[in-house]
Amino acid sequence: MTDLPPKPATTPARPYFSSGPCAKPPGWSADRLNPVSLGRSHRSKIGKQRLQYCIDLMRELLKLPNTHRIGIVPGSDTGAFEMAMWTMLGARPVTALAWESFGEGWVTDAVKQLKIDPTVVRADYGQLPDLTAIDWTNDVLFTWNGTTSGVRVPNADFIPADREGLSFADATSGVFAYDIDWAKIDVATFSWQKVLGGEGAHGVLILGPRAVERLESYTPAWPLPKIFRLVSKGKLTEGIFKGETINTPSMLAVEDAIFSLEWGKSLGENGLIARSDANAAALDRIVEARDWLGHLAADPATRSKTSVCLTVEGADEALIKKMASLLEAEGAAHDVAGYRDAPAGLRIWCGATVDTADIEALGPWLDWAYATAKAA
Fold it and tell me: How far apart are the C-alpha atoms of 277 and 280, rounded to whole Å?
């Protein structure tokens, strides 16, 4: 019988490695949330103040210029990105980039729902397409950081300053973890549930001036549901970007986001980025020390620093499920199996709300789970 390694003596203090919703910030507890807006209307003076404060904090931490508007919208990142697609696409040709499941989702929306016949540029999981070959006379849809593939764009250099089309970035696993050149981004979307460790259901929509110009000069051919409408009488509905949300938000979720944003601010300039960098580096050291582990994204320049996808030697879906179940049962790691549409492997969230010490403590547990699952 093969000797199995002993269970490690040290367990991650916070074994939360899910890629969404992600670990809460260190020190979080429900009783630390400010109750000032709870039980109040989002249209009350205090409700509007707290929504605006949340927007102001996001702008500060993202270093978002005043040229860009930022609004809280329904439906998490998906709702925010679909809102952008439904309201702005159709004015010119579209190119959709897909190298993981969410990018493929935007392709499906463009082809089957909006029926705009986009140019589709694909790459396999773990790879990026040739970003230099994009036709920027088109509107271009892409994911900044592929949550399900562990692949990201290296930076915004591939987006030309003199582009004719709009750049649409699904940046939900990217914002707060990377320094983004906002001059290159016309539309960006994300959810609090990723790098901030906030709650789901609410999305954030960022619009640059060229996106606002599109909204005010173009009317799509298809009808728009109420929650997608960003324009009234040919002008942007500015209230959306001042805390006057289209539908009723959860003020509990808003207060939770404010807690995370205030925590992020307390870390100092680039503090959230630094924590994500440190966590990804710690996981890199674990992978480099093990022959049976690898990165799905082989190129470090395009490897995610948040949703890190790992290959496991000889693994199939059953082995990965067994490993994940073993780790969960021991309280060593929760929710680390790869995404269902991705190649069989592990996915470890390394965003800012995770502590580096917990990443480091995870390594020996991966050894134990791999050996135990293979022997079963």
Answer: 5
CA separation, residue 158 to residues 103, 130, 136, 162, 253 (Å) = 18, 10, 10, 12, 35
Question: Kindly report the CA angle at 339 between 30 and 150, in degrees rounded to 5?
Answer: 90
* CB within 8 Å of 363: residues ≥ 6 apart: 286, 289, 290
Helix H, strand E, coil C: the string for the chain is CCCCCCCCCCCCCCCECCCCCCCCCCCCCHHHCCCCCCCCCCCCHHHHHHHHHHHHHHHHHHCCCCCCEEEEEECHHHHHHHHHHHHHCCCCCEEEEECCHHHHHHHHHHHHHCCCCCEEEECCCCCCCCHHHCCCCCEEEEECEECCCCEECCCCCCCCCCCCCCEEEECCCCCCCCCCCHHHCCEEEEECCCCCCCCCCEEEEEECHHHHHHHHHCCCCCCCCHHHCCEECCEECHHHHHCCCCCCCCHHHHHHHHHHHHHHHHCCCCHHHHHHHHHHHHHHHHHHCCCCEEECCCCHHHECCCEEEEEECCCCHHHHHHHHHHHHHCCCCECCECCCCCCCCEEEECCCCCCHHHHHHHHHHHHHHHHHHHHC
For residue range 11-22, what is the model confidence (pLDDT) as tens digits?
A: 999 999 999 999
- Neighbouring CB atoms inside 10 A of 224's CB total 14
Residues 126-182: tens digit of each pLDDT: 999 999 999 999 999 999 999 999 999 999 999 999 999 999 999 999 999 999 999
pTM value is: 0.97
Q: ω into residue 21 within 30 of 0, thus cis?
A: yes
